[in-house]
Design brief:
It is a single chain. By secondary structure, this protein is of the alpha/beta class. The protein has two domains: about 200 residues, 2-enoyl-CoA Hydratase, Chain A, domain 1 (Alpha-Beta Complex), CATH 3.90.226; about 50 residues, Lyase 2-enoyl-coa Hydratase, Chain  A, domain 2, CATH 1.10.12. Helix content is about 50%, strand content about 15%. The chain contains twelve helices and ten strands. Strands 1-2-3-5-7-10 form a six-stranded mixed sheet, sandwiched between helices. The protein is globular.
């Protein structure tokens, strides 16, 4: 039986591939638990600097497996259905909220429902032009349970998020790029090369600076200006004493590319 999650580390980049192409990479609870375990590994390993998430074949992720999580779930009570999310699916946004390493989604095909929500949790999103996006909960008479109602309005704004959530309509990659849902739409054959190029660029950059920037942006979304300025100044002071900053200054003055040590 094929593994539902493929995991590979090369060049300090961890690639997580959702691998149920026959079900458009819809996830089961066991698949979610494996996904969480791999993210925990990425968080812990010093040889991993960037995480890249993508899907196998022609889909990114179509959300939860309708047979396991919906049809079979009808025999369970409301608390059990809540526990499916709290004890499994919610572990993904929790670990990502603790991870200061860059996380990139390479959206190779349809991202719908919780599959789209999981892409929204990533720091950067690049998509193939053939990809489609939809928040399909309303079509199943449900609401977002994986964080969509939290992440989506923060990315595209309240009115656009409500429109997507209330209609469940599909959106193409060009429109997704226009409204800021994704960073860039690319030719299908160019998607992975672009995502890997960005991952390599981040790997080659000043590691502590990149991670401090992510922490500052995340904290700034939930703090006032005074707290954000204080956090920035404190981290700036630490980074200004670091080897990578000293190397950057020398490289600038010597008119060469810096060689960061991470």
């Amino acid at each position: 039986m094929a593994e539902d999650i493929l995991f590979e580390v090369a060049e300090r980049i961890a690639t997580i591939t959702l691998n149920r192409p026959e079900r458009r990479n819809a996830f089961t609870l066991a698949m979610i638990d494996e996904w969480v375990a791999r993210l925990e590994e990425c968080h812990a390993r010093d040889d991993i600097h960037v995480v890249l998430v993508t899907g196998a074949d022609k889909a990114f992720c179509s959300g939860g497996d309708i047979d396991e999580l919906m049809k079979q779930g009808q025999a369970r009570g409301p608390q059990e259905r809540k526990d499916e999310l709290v004890n499994h699916v919610h572990n993904i946004p929790r670990i990502l909220a603790r991870m200061d390493k860059p996380v990139i989604a390479a959206i190779n095909g349809a991202a719908t429902g919780a599959g789209l929500d999981l892409a929204l949790m990533c720091d950067l999103r690049y998509a193939a032009r053939s990809a489609k996006f939809a928040e399909t909960y309303v079509k199943m008479a449900l609401m977002p349970g994986a964080g969509g109602a939290y992440f989506l309005p923060r990315i595209v704004g309240r009115a656009r998020a409500l429109e997507m959530l209330w209609t469940g309509d599909f959106m193409d990659a060009e429109e997704a790029e226009r409204i800021g849902l994704i960073n860039k739409a690319l030719a299908d054959e160019a998607l992975m090369a672009h995502a890997l190029d960005m991952a390599r660029r981040l790997v080659a950059g000043p590691t502590q600076s990149i991670r401090a920037i992510k922490r500052a942006v995340r904290a700034g979304l939930r703090s006032d200006l005074s707290d954000s300025l204080d956090l920035g100044a404190s981290n700036y002071g630490v980074l200004a004493m670091g080897d990578d900053h000293l190397e950057a200054v020398d490289a600038f003055l010597e008119k060469r590319k810096p060689r960061f040590g991470g």
